[in-house]
Amino acid sequence: MAERIEKDEEQWRAELDPEQYRILREAGTEPAFTGKYYRNKETGIYHCGACGAELFGSDQKYESGSGWPSFRTPVSKDALETRTDRSHGMTRIEVRCARCGSHLGHVFDDGPAPTGQRYCINSAALDFEQRGGDGAGS
Fold it and tell me: Any idea what DSSP says for residue 96?
């Protein structure tokens, strides 16, 4: 993992569009089935929308039916950090970018084998870099 990125909220607000800022920096959520990457089937890498860190490969994306892009596992164990989220009257595991601390989404233990995990990530928290392939993934 690259060196940790630290910026004040004024800098983040200047660099991100309002929706990205709301999700990445204020732990917001986009409405289900509306994100630009929900149905993306291109081959490539998903990056943090705030700092550009590599987070997920398209080979780990799958259709969970949840309404958000879902992934089995990140590109490396060091790419993400997690914390307990007790907001909205429930307990969940929040997923953040380990490089910049931005909110990405949540991870659940109801995913497919072999990991059993479902990383449920907001499209607005991601950027996508297409890399070869025929787009037949997920």
Answer: E
